[in-house]
Write a structure and sequence with these properties.
Layout: E1 2-6, H1 10-19, E2 24-29, H2 32-41, E3 46-49, H3 58-61, E4 67-70, H4 74-86, E5 90-93, H5 105-110, E6 114-116, H6 125-134, E7 138-150, H7 165-173, E8 176-180, E9 183-187, E10 194-198, E11 202-208, H8 215-218, E12 224-231, H9 235-244, E13 253-255, E14 258-260, H10 262-273, E15 282-294, E16 297-308, H11 317-334, E17 342-344, H12 347-350, H13 355-365, E18 370-375
Parallel strand pairs: 1-2, 1-4, 2-3, 4-5, 5-6, 6-17, 7-12
Antiparallel strand pairs: 7-15, 8-9, 10-11, 11-12, 13-14, 15-16, 16-18
């Protein structure tokens, strides 16, 4: 079985290492340096330097591969997924692009392709969870709070990003959609901040982000849904100042004869400041609350995740909790547990009887544990 992984960033490398224990894995990236880091960690993974923005070449690039994982930056994600589907390859996607992935559903059906998208933590596991409970109960509300943070708080940011800074900045600037009383409402990103106390992480600040994505349409019968991002207190004040100062603007300016946007400049600066050091401790934290009626009784399911970096493998928590959800999703396709054709966000997969328990066990086997409590 031959698997192509498009993108060799932190999460892409973690997925390649996970899958190469069972399969013939090749990782593609334009960065030889990123591929070299992967080779140093796991020699069994083949590597190819390739321009993944050359979408017309995907049919040749993916010839001979049985399955594909896409792990490119969000701004490339939609066209990358479209090119993979056009190549006729079943795929699990983790690119978190802003476009609506369901717009590719008809193409996937035409090409006889199964595509599971948004396969991360949130979106990702949060979607699997709501999909699972939607098949068992009448859900009235859904709330997700999630964040990935360094244990060592270093000013000014007190933050490190496992993803491209452009993707993180997109979270901070794109208006946040949520469901209130059965209607989609839009609020500014970073709005409605509140301080929340957590057992392991202490006090964190939550704020609105546009993380519900497909749930707004596939779960539109649920009256109330919201997603909030978690950071250390004070982080969003810095981000708001940068937004107000124009540092995240896409409008180009001329600097010594060179046209550049403030967003490009800021991303180039932040990529090093937000990059985790190899031995830096970090954690992923998530709390999900699903409320509703099950078997005539009102219940609330609470899922808690607190995961730290793996000291043995050196793999970060965010790359593991995110990447293993995606490799578990691909295994659902490989093993024939999910065979429907089209584009499917995880909530449409998690409602299938065997799929959600498989993903939970897959993560548990790799040291990622979700604690589940029921409030009656």
């Amino acid at each position: 079985m031959k698997i192509a992984i498009l993108g060799a960033g932190m999460v892409g490398r973690t997925m390649a290492i996970d899958l190469c224990a069972k399969y013939d894995v090749t990782s593609f990236d334009i960065s030889a340096a990123s591929l070299a880091i992967l080779t140093a960690k796991e020699a069994r993974v083949k590597t190819v330097v390739a321009d993944l923005g050359d979408y017309d070449n995907y049919r040749n690039l993916l010839e001979g591969f049985d399955f594909v994982i896409t792990a490119v930056p969000g701004f490339m994600g939609y066209k990358t997924l479209e090119a993979v589907i056009n190549s006729g390859k079943n795929v699990a996607d983790i690119s978190f692009f802003p476009e609506n992935s369901l717009d590719l559903d008809a193409l996937a059906k035409e090409k006889n392709v199964t595509a599971i998208v948004d396969c991360g933590v949130a979106p990702g596991m949060s979607n699997y969870i709501i999909g699972h409970h939607n098949s068992k109960m009448e859900i009235s509300s859904f709330e997700c709070m999630v964040g990935g943070l360094p244990k060592n708080r270093i000013k000014p940011w007190e933050y490190k990003a496992p993803f491209s800074p452009i993707d993180v900045i997109e979270e901070y600037t794109r208006p946040a959609r949520m469901m209130e009383n059965g209607r989609i409402v839009t609020k500014p990103a970073l709005s409605e901040s509140e301080l929340i106390d957590f057992d392991h992480a202490g006090t964190l600040e939550s704020f609105n982000t546009d993380g519900l994505r497909s749930l707004l349409f596939t779960m539109s019968h649920i009256q109330d849904m919201k997603e909030k991002t978690l950071r250390y207190p004070g982080h969003i004040d810095l981000i708001k100042a940068m937004i107000k100062g124009g540092f995240f603007s896409n409008d180009t300016i001329n600097m010594n004869g060179v046209e550049i946007s403030p967003l490009e400049f800021s991303s180039a600066v932040l990529i090093n400041q937000w990059k985790s050091k190899p031995d830096e401790e970090e954690f992923t934290i998530m709390k999900i609350k699903v409320r509703g009626i099950e078997n005539g009784k009102e219940l609330e399911y609470v899922y808690d995740l607190y995961d730290v970096n793996d000291e043995v493998s050196g793999l970060s928590s965010m790359s593991r909790t995110t990447g293993y959800t995606c490799t578990a999703s691909l295994e659902l396709i490989i093993n024939g547990m999910f065979q429907e054709k089209g584009v499917f966000p995880p909530e449409l997969v998690g409602g299938k009887r065997e799929c959600f328990p498989f993903v939970m066990e897959y993560l548990k086997a790799r040291g990622v544990h979700y604690e589940v409590n029921i409030n009656r």
